TrEMBL record, chain A:
This is Vacuolar protein sorting-associated protein 26. Keywords: Protein transport, Transport. Residues 303-329 are annotated as: Disordered. Gene3D superfamilies: 2.60.40.640. It comes from the Eukaryota. GO terms for biological process: intracellular protein transport. The lineage of its organism: Eukaryota, Amoebozoa, Evosea, Eumycetozoa, Dictyostelia. Belongs to the VPS26 family.
UniProtKB/TrEMBL annotation, chain B:
The lineage of its organism: Eukaryota, Amoebozoa, Evosea, Eumycetozoa, Dictyostelia. This is Vacuolar protein sorting-associated protein 35. It is found in: Membrane. Plays a role in vesicular protein sorting. Its main location: membrane. It comes from Heterostelium pallidum (strain ATCC 26659 / Pp 5 / PN500) (Cellular slime mold). Keywords: Membrane, Protein transport, Transport.
Length: 329, 782
């Protein structure tokens, strides 16, 4: 696939071509300027190789240059700190020494074993990009630079420990509930199964919902920016339950645009996810409890295509009658 | 209410409902239209979204149950449309995908309606085992805890799965009937909880409205029980072992009267009688555990009535004693429910009684047990409570039913608790029941042959027999009614009968002793027939003796006859004592004749003396005296008394009484009649005393002759008497006597215009005629 990018005043058109991309998955990404583009998805340490073509617009005009190079860059862009991009990875390949480019030319490049530690990320206040950059250095004119983004994802190993989340919360003599989510760590296509058990209800509840919240935190020290985004409000109960009722929770994560949990990316930012269980009473008063869940990206044995859903019924945990007793101590 | 200042007119609650409903309905139809268009264009995902919008209208809290139902029905049609589209599989999606997709909906109500819709197709396409889908659906439905919305959601679940439940003969891999039972019972349980909760969540002031709303919704809950009953796999065994215990558990545990009442009624209604028969204990012990406000009586009564009807059409298995089960349970329930209304307790007794009489007509001890229990209960109740009209009505039913069923008062009297039960009633009601008993006896012509039975009957109806402490004042009692009652009681005597004279006599003695307590107003009705029956009895007995059917020698007969007549005498005496002189007098005469026929001279004489005494002492009215004496004369004349001495004493006494009459006219008339006492000439007796005859006639004549206003008629009568005796060839009246008499009448007493003139003319004509044919008349001159 070719990308044509006409640079005003630029004497040439530059196009990148990546190897092994006939069947490569793409992802649609909305860029800073609101444009959406399709990027090829790379996993982990996959090599990035390909060709870059420089086509002169006017064949009579040669381009004098001090050298042509191609770089592979991984960088973090903090929106509040424009211009300061943190490159955490950068590899360079010299394509041509200083000279004149008199005709259109195609160069091959190859970044083998390039480490792509972080996943690409396109957040509210921060962006993590990987791209290939061609630079034609010039003496008298400004350098000709062209960047070409790819999208990187990393599969995680299934968590070794994945206990459920179970907790009793309440307001004395008013409301006591026990909630349980079947896991603490969910992969991105996972289903959150849970139940809310009402131990004491003295308020008139109107409804109960679970919100999935994404919290992006950038910067450090005095310059910490926190951005919360509610990805969904999922009503799980309508009406007022009485003591002893248990309400099922089943939330399919595949619908949402999620990333794995990023604890600390190059000490620049983190992305965490929370389940916020909220009960609303008839006076629209809210009672809630937030609980972090860890999201991880599951490796695909099967193609990532949207088929082969988990057998839903088998994943419904049967309520454990002893569980609540153990926990009430 | 919200301050929507722009709305100037306040709508009435009804108008408001209508408005809300119309709006919601419109929205549903608009979204429904979009959904259908989307389906027509094969855009399933869009269609699902529109369906979700349809269901969003069902999230309203503004509608009453009735309006909500109307809205639900509109939405239901669209869901059905979607349902059939999904089943046709044109969409090319696997059901498992759709099953997930619909769960992405953010609101729980649309999500669940969609899930159920897809789930039902999922089962129907057999892409998943029915039992798994059902289990999942029912579990997920917990998300709706709002009573009305939850009830309708679960009703929807029940509606769309009803033809997909695993049952006998369906594919095993989809589950068995037990999965279906589990599913329905769980749905039932949850629905009932929601339904009950509705009550508790309303403010107290809205209680009535809430109760009405709940009644509107009860069918939704009850439907589950019908579904259970429709499962082929629910046979009697499964019902009693699996279904009933679970259903009953919920009914008891919900601890709410409206629900318990309704569900018990439905339970009894939807399952067949055979099932109830096999599980009577469970059902009844459930009844005993229901809330105090539940009308347990209605439940049990309807069950009893059903089974009683069932028993009349089918034979009940011998190992089930329906009555015993009901009886013991009812007993226990009454004991445990301290605040049960007496009328309800009694109503249960009525049902029990009907049950045993229908199912076990031959086991009368059952009926007695029912009455006994009732008696025992009433002992601890206050008079006021017992005498409430509703209670009285039931007690009377308890007493009437055996009469109607047995159609034999003897069988009723065998129920030892019958009579004590009457005693709880007030005077008028006791009387009413007693009359029922009497009427029943008469209507069925029940012959009572045993003295004990007579005793027991009369004791039972004692309110009619004697005065009682709580009876109203005599002048408050309607005379006609009273007489009619007493006449009925009196007519019972005719049903007391026995082939065995000894027994029959005993019966009369028993009756006498009961009637004897009745007081003046009653005995004048009751003792008279007793006297007549006794006389008839003794006459028959005598005939049997004479015919040799009963062998008694003369002495024995005299002894027995005397005993019977003494009884009669004593009975008449009771009437004498209350100054019913004329009546007693006539009874004595009757007795005289009977005793005479029975050849008991002494008795005859005694009765005659009694008659004379009463005549002398107690008959004051002179017209009555004339009548009485006339009767006495003819009675004495008719006797066959052979003892001349006795007879003459009586005759003498009679003349004596005649001379004591008030007016000379009467004296004369009666003395002339007395002449017949001395000329007895019939088959059984000849007694002729011509001198006395003439003497009487002379005396009579002399009395009347001395009167200034003698009048013609008495003379003519005397003349006729003379002619009679002359005709009899008695030699008592000489021809000259007659001639002189005629002469006397003609000269002295015949006046123009006297009403007796014709009588005289006719008499003379008679003599003239006789003269032509009868030689003896030659000596008479007229």
């Amino acid at each position: 696939m070719n990308f044509f990018n006409s640079l005003t005043g630029s004497p040439c058109n530059i196009s990148f071509d990546l190897d092994n991309c006939q069947n490569r998955k793409t992802i649609e990404v909305t860029s800073e300027k609101g444009k959406s583009e399709k990027l090829f998805v790379f996993v982990g340490n996959e090599p990035v190789s390909g060709k870059v073509s420089i086509n002169l617009k006017d064949k009579a005009k040669k381009i004098e240059h001090k050298g042509i190079k191609v770089e592979f860059v991984g960088q973090i862009e903090l929106f509040y700190d424009r211009g300061n991009h943190y490159e955490f990875t950068s590899l360079v390949r010299e394509l041509a020494p200083a000279g004149d480019l008199t005709e259109s030319k195609t160069f091959a490049y190859d970044f083998m074993n390039v480490e792509k530690q972080y996943e690409s990320y396109n957040g509210t206040n921060v962006r993590l990009r990987y791209f290939v950059r061609l630079t034609i250095s010039r003496n008298y004119a400004s350098n000709i630079v062209k960047e070409y983004d790819i999208w990187v994802i990393n599969f995680n190993k299934p968590p070794e420990v994945n206990s459920n989340i179970k907790m009793e919360v309440g307001i004395e003599d008013c409301l006591h509930i026990e909630f349980e989510y079947n896991k603490s760590k969910y992969h991105l296509k996972d289903v959150i199964i849970g139940k809310i058990y009402f131990l004491l209800v003295r308020i008139k509840i109107k409804y109960m919902e679970i919100a999935l919240i994404k919290r992006e935190q950038t910067g450090s020290g005095p310059n910490v920016f926190s951005e919360s985004e509610t990805l969904t409000k999922f009503e799980i109960m309508d009406g007022a339950p009485v003591r002893g009722e248990s309400i099922p929770v089943r939330l399919f994560l595949s619908v949402f645009d999620l990333t794995p949990t990023y604890r600390s990316v190059h000490n620049k930012f983190s992305v965490k996810y929370y389940l916020n269980l909220a009960l609303v009473d008839e006076d629209d008063k809210k009672y809630f409890k937030q609980q972090e869940i860890t999201l991880w990206r599951r490796g695909v044995s099967k193609p990532i295509a949207n088929t082969g859903k988990p057998e839903v019924h088998n994943e419904i945990p049967t309520p454990d009658p002893d569980a609540s007793e153990d926990d009430s101590e | 209410m919200n301050s929507k200042g722009t709305v100037a007119i306040t709508l009435s609650p009804e108008e408001e409902q209508k408005k809300f409903l119309e709006e919601a309905k419109n929205n549903v139809m608009v979204q429904g239209h979009h959904m259908k268009v989307a389906l027509d264009n094969g855009k399933l995902m869009d269609a699902l979204k529109y369906t979700s919008d349809i269901i969003n209208e069902l999230r309203t809290s503004l509608l009453s149950p009735k309006s909500y139902y109307a809205l639900y029905m509109v939405a239901f049609d669209y869901l059905q449309h979607l349902n059939s589209y999904l089943f046709e599989e044109k969409h090319g999606k696997r059901m498992i995908e759709l099953y997930e997709v619909v769960q992405h909906a953010g609101n729980v109500l649309p999500r669940l309606y969609l899930l159920i819709t897809v789930g039902s197709v999922y089962i129907k396409t057999k892409q998943a085992p029915a039992k798994d889908v059902l289990k999942d659906l029912i579990e997920m439905c917990r998300g709706v805890q709002h009573p009305t919305r939850g009830l309708f959601l679960r009703y929807y679940l029940s509606e769309v799965t009803k033809d997909k439940l695993p049952d006998v003969g369906s594919d095993e891999s989809g589950g068995t009937v037990f999965d279906s039972i589990e599913f329905i019972v769980q749905n039932f349980t949850e629905m009932n909880k929601l339904w009950v909760r509705m009550q508790h969540q309303a403010p107290t002031k809205d209680k009535d409205r809430r109760e009405n709303e709940r009644l509107d919704l009860r069918v939704l809950v009850g439907k589950n029980l019908s579904r259970l009953s429709q499962l082929e796999g629910v046979d009697q065994n499964v019902y009693s072992k699996t279904v009933l215990p679970k259903v009953v558990e919920q009914i008891i545990n919900c601890k709410e009267k409206i629900a318990q009442q309704y569900l018990m009624e439905i339970l009894i209604q939807v399952f067949p009688d055979e099932f109830h028969l096999a599980t009577l204990d469970t059902i009844l012990s459930t009844c005993s555990q229901l809330q105090s406000g539940v009308d347990v009586k209605a439940i049990i009564a309807s069950l009893i009535d059903r089974l009683a009807n069932y028993a009349s059409r089918n034979t009940i298995p011998e190992n089930i004693d329906i009555f015993a089960v009901f009886f013991n349970n009812v007993k226990e329930i009454i004991q445990n429910r301290a605040n049960m209304e007496l009328q309800d307790i009694l109503g249960l007794h009525v049902s029990l009684l009907n049950l045993t009489l229908k199912c076990y007509p031959e086991k009368r001890e059952n009926a007695n047990a029912v009455l006994g229990l009732c008696q025992q209960i009433l002992t601890n109740k206050s008079k006021e409570e017992i005498n409430k009209p509703t209670c009285v009505k039931q007690i009377i039913s308890l007493l009437q039913i055996p009469l109607e069923v047995f159609k034999n008062v003897l069988a009723v009297l065998k129920l030892t608790s019958y009579q004590p039960l009457i005693q709880f009633l007030s005077y008028n009601n006791r009387k009413k029941v007693s009359l029922d008993i009497v009427n029943n006896t008469i209507k069925n012509s029940t012959i009572i042959e045993e003295p004990e039975d007579v005793n027991s009957l009369l004791e039972t109806i004692q309110t009619l027999i004697k005065d009682e402490t709580d009876q109203p004042e005599m002048d408050e009692i309607d005379k006609e009614d009273f007489q009619e009652e007493q006449n009925k009681v009196a007519s019972l005597i005719h049903l007391f009968d026995s082939e065995d004279p000894e027994k029959l006599f005993k019966i009369y003695i028993v009756a006498r002793s009961h009637f004897g307590k009745g007081g003046a107003q009653r005995i004048k009705h009751t003792l008279v027939p007793l006297v007549f029956r006794s006389l008839k009895f003794v006459t028959k007995l005598k005939k049997q003796v004479d015919d040799g059917i009963i062998s008694l020698d003369e002495n024995q007969w005299t002894l027995i006859g005397t005993k019977i007549f003494n009884f009669v005498m004593e009975t008449i005496k009771a009437l004498v004592d209350i100054k019913l002189s004329e009546l007693s007098f006539r009874l004595y005469l009757q007795a005289i004749q009977t005793a005479d026929k029975c050849n008991l001279q002494k008795i005859t004489y005694d009765f005659a003396i009694k008659a004379l005494v009463i005549f002398q002492e107690d008959i004051a009215d002179f017209k009555a005296q004339v009548n009485a004496l006339t009767l006495l004369i003819s009675t004495l004349n008719s006797l066959s008394l052979s003892d001349v001495e006795l007879y003459e004493t009586l005759a003498g006494q009679t003349i004596k009484q005649a001379t004591r009459l008030l007016t000379p006219h009467d004296q004369s008339k009666l003395i002339s009649l007395c002449s017949h006492l001395f000329w007895v000439d019939h088959d059984t007796r000849q007694y002729k005393n011509p001198d006395s005859v003439l003497q009487a006639l002379r005396r009579s004549l002399s009395i009347i002759t001395n009167q200034s206003d003698a009048g013609l008629s008495v003379f003519v009568e005397i003349l006729n008497e003379c002619i009679y005796f002359f005709d009899q060839k008695s030699d008592a009246v000489p021809p000259q006597f007659i001639s002189d008499l005629v002469e006397l009448i003609r000269t002295t007493h015949s006046k123009e215009g006297d009403s007796a003139s014709v009588y005289l003319q006719n008499t003379i004509k008679y003599i003239a005629t006789k003269k032509e044919s009868d030689k003896s008349y030659a000596e008479i001159s007229v």
